[in-house]
Specification:
With 520 residues, the chain is α+β, with helices and mostly antiparallel strands. It is built from 7 helices and 15 strands.
C-alpha cells in the first residue's frame, strides 16, 4: 500500500506548487501583438455596425396604409324652400365658375311677394313723411281717401288669395291622399295574391271540367275501352296581376242551341315552371307597388308643406294689407291735426316691419336660384326640370336593381341602385331617400387616409410618400401636408386623418378612387 504524500509547509510549499514564494517575483505575461490588437478592433467595429444596421432596419420599416382621393371642397347644393325645379343648366362633368347659375326654381310666388312687400314699404314711407308734416290740403285729403280705398281693395284681394290657397291646398291634399290610399290598397291586394298562390301551402286552382264532345244521332255509345296512361291534368292558368287587378274573364257563353266550345288546353303557367314565373311576376309587382306608395307619400308630404307655406305667406300679406288700411284710415281721421310722438313712433315701427318683410321676401327670391359657390366641376345631378326639391334634396328612385329577377339583382358586387324590401316583409313601410340636387367639387384633388393610433407617431408633416392607384396602375410621389390631431373614434379603434398632396391628374385619378400609401 502506497504511502500518502506528506504535506509540504513553509517556503517549500510555494516551490512545490510552482508559485512564487515570499520575496519572489511572478513571471510577466507576454504582451499582445499589434496584429492581434487590430483584429480585435475590427471584430468590435463589425459587431457595432451590424447592431446599428439592424436597429435602423427595424426603426425605418416602411409604413403602408390605404386612402382615398378626395377634392379640397365638396358642395352639396339644394334649394332652401320646397318647390319645383324650373331649369337645370349643368350636367355632370361641366366646369363652372363661382357665381354661375346652376339651377332655378319656379319663383312666380316669391317675385309677387317681393313686389307686394316693396309696395308696403313705399306706402309706409309716405305715411311716415306725412305724419311728420301733418299739413293737409284738399288734394292731400282726396289722396288720403284714395289710399283708404286702395288699401281696402288690397285687403279684399289678400283675403280672397288666402281663401283660394286654403281651398286649393285642401283639394290637392285630398287628391294625393286618394292616390296614397289607392296605392296602399294595390299593395295589400298583391300581397294577398302572393300569399294565396306562392306560399308553401298554396296550390294552383283545379282546371275547369271538360265538356263532353257531342255525338251524332244513331251513333252507339262507346263501350268500355282500355285506358292508356295519360298525363296528369294541368291546373288552369292563374292570371298574371296587373296594375288594374282585373279579374280573370270567364269563357264567353256558347250560342243558343249549339254545343259548348271545348275548353282550351291549360297553359304552361299551371306547371311548376309556370307557377314559379307567376310568383316572380307577383314579387316584382309588389316591389313596384311599394316604390309607387313611397313616391305617393313623398308627394303628399310635399303637397302639404307647399300648401302650408303658401297659406302662411298669404296670411302675412293679409296682415300687411290690414295694417296699411288701418294706417290710411287713421290718417284720414287725423286730417288737420298734429300727430303725437307715439303715433309717429308707431308709423316708424310699421315701416321697419315692412322693410324686414321685404328683406325676407328678397332672400326667398334669391334662394330660388342656385349658384356655384366656387370654381369647380359638377360631380353629380340628382334631378331634372319639374322635380320637387326642398332642403332635404330630391326624392331618390330605387332603380331597376330593386326589381327581383333582374340581372343586376342576381349579380354580386356593387349595384347602381339600392334594392328594396323583399316580399313578405313590411314593404309598405319603405322610407323615402333623398339626394342632393347638385354636387360640385372644388380645388385640387388630394389623398385622405386614416392611420391607426399605433402608426400615427411614425408620420409627420412634410414627409415624402409614394401613392399607388390600383384603378389606373400608376404610382406618383406625394407629400404629407396635414396630420389632423382630432381623432376619429370607432368602436374598438382610434384613427387620425392624414392629408397627402400629389399630382392626381398625372396618375389619371378621380375623386373616390382608392390609393395605397407607402411612407419610408
Amino acid at each position: 500500500m502506497a504511502k500518502s504524500a506528506r504535506p509540504v509547509r513553509g517556503m517549500n510549499a510555494a516551490l512545490a506548487s510552482g508559485e512564487a514564494g515570499v520575496g519572489e517575483i511572478r513571471p510577466a505575461r507576454t504582451a499582445m501583438s499589434v496584429k492581434q490588437l487590430a483584429v480585435a478592433l475590427c471584430v468590435a467595429l463589425v459587431g457595432a455596425g451590424i447592431g446599428v444596421g439592424t436597429y435602423h432596419a427595424i426603426a425605418s420599416r416602411p409604413v403602408s396604409f390605404s386612402g382615398q382621393v378626395t377634392p379640397e371642397h365638396a358642395y352639396y347644393l339644394n334649394f332652401q324652400n320646397t318647390g319645383t325645379v324650373q331649369t337645370l343648366t349643368v350636367r355632370p362633368g361641366d366646369h363652372v365658375k363661382a357665381g354661375q347659375v346652376l339651377a332655378t326654381q319656379v319663383s312666380s310666388v316669391a317675385a309677387a311677394n317681393v313686389a307686394a312687400a316693396q309696395a308696403a314699404v313705399d306706402a309706409d314711407t309716405a305715411l311716415l313723411a306725412e305724419d311728420r308734416n301733418p299739413q293737409t290740403t284738399a288734394d292731400q285729403a282726396t289722396q288720403d281717401q284714395l289710399d283708404v280705398a286702395k288699401a281696402q281693395a288690397a285687403v279684399n284681394t289678400a283675403q280672397g288669395a288666402l281663401a283660394l290657397a286654403a281651398n286649393s291646398t285642401q283639394n290637392n291634399v285630398a287628391a294625393q291622399t286618394t292616390v296614397v290610399t289607392s296605392d296602399q290598397t294595390t299593395l295589400d291586394n298583391d300581397n294577398a295574391r302572393f300569399a294565396q298562390y306562392c306560399s308553401p301551402t298554396a296550390s294552383a286552382p283545379a282546371p275547369p271540367p271538360q265538356a263532353p264532345a257531342p255525338q251524332a244521332q244513331g251513333t252507339p255509345a262507346p263501350g268500355p275501352v282500355a285506358l292508356l296512361p295519360a298525363a296528369a291534368p294541368e291546373a288552369a292558368p292563374v292570371p298574371t296581376p296587373t296594375r288594374s287587378h282585373s279579374p280573370a274573364l270567364a269563357p264567353p257563353p256558347s250560342p243558343s242551341g249549339s254545343a259548348p266550345a271545348p275548353t282550351p288546353a291549360p297553359s304552361s303557367s299551371a306547371t311548376p315552371f309556370g307557377q314559379l314565373q307567376l310568383c316572380n311576376d307577383l314579387q316584382a309587382q309588389i316591389e313596384r307597388d311599394a316604390s309607387a306608395l313611397a313616391q305617393a307619400k313623398a308627394n303628399l308630404t310635399s303637397t302639404q308643406s307647399t300648401g302650408q307655406a303658401q297659406q302662411q305667406q298669404d296670411e302675412q300679406n293679409l296682415a300687411q294689407s290690414e295694417a296699411t288700411l288701418q294706417a290710411a284710415q287713421a290718417r284720414v281721421a287725423a286730417q288737420g291735426t298734429a300727430l303725437t310722438p307715439a303715433s309717429i313712433a308707431q308709423a316708424q315701427s310699421q315701416l321697419a316691419s315692412a322693410q324686414a318683410q321685404l328683406a325676407a321676401d328678397q332672400l326667398a327670391l334669391k334662394q330660388a336660384t342656385i349658384t356655384a359657390p366656387a370654381d369647380g366641376i359638377v360631380a353629380d345631378t340628382a334631378g331634372a326640370a319639374g322635380d320637387t326639391v326642398g332642403p332635404e334634396g330630391v326624392h331618390a328612385y330605387e332603380g331597376p336593381a330593386a326589381q327581383s329577377g333582374t340581372l343586376v339583382n342576381q349579380q354580386p358586387g356593387i349595384q347602381l341602385f339600392v334594392p328594396s324590401a323583399a316580399p313578405g316583409s313590411n314593404a309598405g313601410s319603405t322610407q323615402a331617400t333623398y339626394s342632393a340636387l347638385l354636387t360640385v367639387y372644388s380645388g385640387p384633388l388630394s389623398v385622405t387616409a386614416q392611420l391607426p393610433e399605433s402608426q400615427v407617431a411614425s408620420v409627420h408633416q412634410g414627409q415624402a410618400a409614394t401613392l399607388s392607384f390600383p384603378a389606373t396602375g400608376r404610382s406618383v410621389p406625394g407629400r404629407i401636408s396635414e396630420v389632423r390631431l382630432d381623432p376619429a373614434r370607432v368602436p374598438g379603434a382610434t384613427y387620425y386623418n392624414v392629408t397627402i398632396t400629389t399630382d392626381a391628374q398625372r396618375a389619371g385619378a378621380l375623386a373616390g378612387m382608392s390609393v395605397n400609401v407607402t411612407i419610408g
